[in-house]
Amino acid sequence: MILHITKRPRMIATVAALAVSLIALSTPSARSMLMDGFIEFAQVTEKAACFPYWLVTHTHCFSLDRFDPTCPQCM
Question: pTM for the whole thing?
Fold first, then answer.
């Protein structure tokens, strides 16, 4: 009986946090902010991938934007 009583508030808090996050992500501004975060993460990982190349050659690594068909610099 004690086990069920101690787990109930944790379960309620988890369900409430999940509901609040789903409600918050349903707004367009929250989705936009989340996508901006993903873009920043992609840029950080690209810079981390280019750093060893820069250490060896002291030149800039090629950008992954050249694989994007909508990239204006690549046309």
Answer: 0.44
